[in-house]
Amino acid sequence: MRYQVRLKLYENKDHIIYMRENPVWYRILTRHPEMVDQFIEQYKIDRKLTFQDKMDQMGLMLEMFNALM
C-alpha cells in the first residue's frame, strides 16, 4: 500500500480496525489508492457516523426526553 494512503488511514486508528474487519478494502486500496475517499465514506456509513445518522440519533434522544417529561 502506498505511503500516502497509509498516512491518511493512520489519522484515525478506527480506520485500521475497520480495514481488518473488511480485508477486501486492503486489496482495493493496494491496487487503487485513489479510492481512499470511497473507503472513508463506506467506513462512515457502516459505523453510522454520517450527518444523517447523527441527526437521527438526536431526534431519538429528543423523543425520549419528551416522553420522560
Please give the structural blueprint.
Layout: H1 3-9, H2 13-21, H3 24-31, H4 36-46, H5 51-68
Question: Any overview of this molecule?
Answer:
The protein is mainly alpha-helical and 69 residues long. Helix content is 77%, strand content 0%. The chain has five helices and no strands. It has helices at 3-9, 13-21, 24-31, 36-46, 51-68. The radius of gyration is 16 Å and the shape is elongated. It starts with a helix and ends with a helix. 7% of the residues are buried. The mean pLDDT is 93.
Shape: elongated
Rg calculated over all Cα atoms: 16 Å
Topology order in helix (H) and strand (E) letters: HHHHH
Low-confidence stretches: none
Q: Treating each run of at least 4 consecutive H or I residues as one helix, how many helices?
A: 5
Which structural class do you get from the secondary structure elements?
Answer: mainly alpha
Proportion in helices: over 70%
Descriptive key words:
5 helices; 69 residues; mainly alpha
Brief description of this entry?
The protein contains five helices and no strands.
